[in-house]
Amino acid sequence: MKNSKESYKTIKGWAIDAKDENPTPVAMSEERPSQEILRIEVLKSNERAELPAVIGQTIPPQGISGQLRKFAFRYSESQYRHWLPLLLADRINEIEGIWDDLKKGKCPNIAAERGWKARWKYDRKRTLLKLAGVTAISLLAVRFCLKKH
User: Fold this and answer.
1) Cβ neighbours, 10 Å, residue 32
2) Which of 52, 75, 86, 119 sits in a 20 to 30 Å window from 67, CA-based?
3) What is the pLDDT of residue 102?
């Protein structure tokens, strides 16, 4: 099967978000969904003039991870300055979530949320190696911190 632009035109709803000034035949036959009402701040790519009609919304960018996400969206999606801060923001958001749980008096079950039970069951050797590595790095960090004081 040839992979051409023409073969995609048969897919129902293909290019529904195409700009009105250059619509595809399928987009002309479909009604464009109305724009979802924004109730929170939504970060959008600087490579796209408008938002898509439907946006999955959960929570607005907040905290340190939110600031990193705002920084990342200043840059093109073809640059590391876009993707690396987003990866870092995900890790920081995980820590912020744990901190929020602790502030609310809820003790998060990190082992279950991270899938450690399955790792222990199916890949015990690698799990032990990772645990040994994290323990060694943590002990070195504590020793380094105590040595300075």
Assistant:
1) 13
2) 52
3) 93
Provide the token pair at 89: 């923001």
DSSP state of 119: H
Backbone angles phi, psi at 141, to 5 degrees: -65, -45
The Cα-based distances of 123 to 26, 83, 119 in angstroms read 49, 30, 5
How far is 80 from 71, CA to CA, in rounded Å? Answer: 12
Pair of tokens at residue 125: 């050797």
Give phi and psi for 28, each to the nearest 5: -70, -30
- Is residue 53 a contact partner of residue 34, using CB atoms and an 8 Å limit? yes
CA 44 to chain centre: 13
Higher model confidence: residue 147 or residue 83? Answer: 83
Q: Are 64 and 92 in contact (CB under 8 A)?
A: yes
- Give which of 87, 88, 100, 112 is closest to 59, Cα–Cα: 100
With beta carbons less than 8 A apart as the criterion, state whether 110 and 99 touch: no
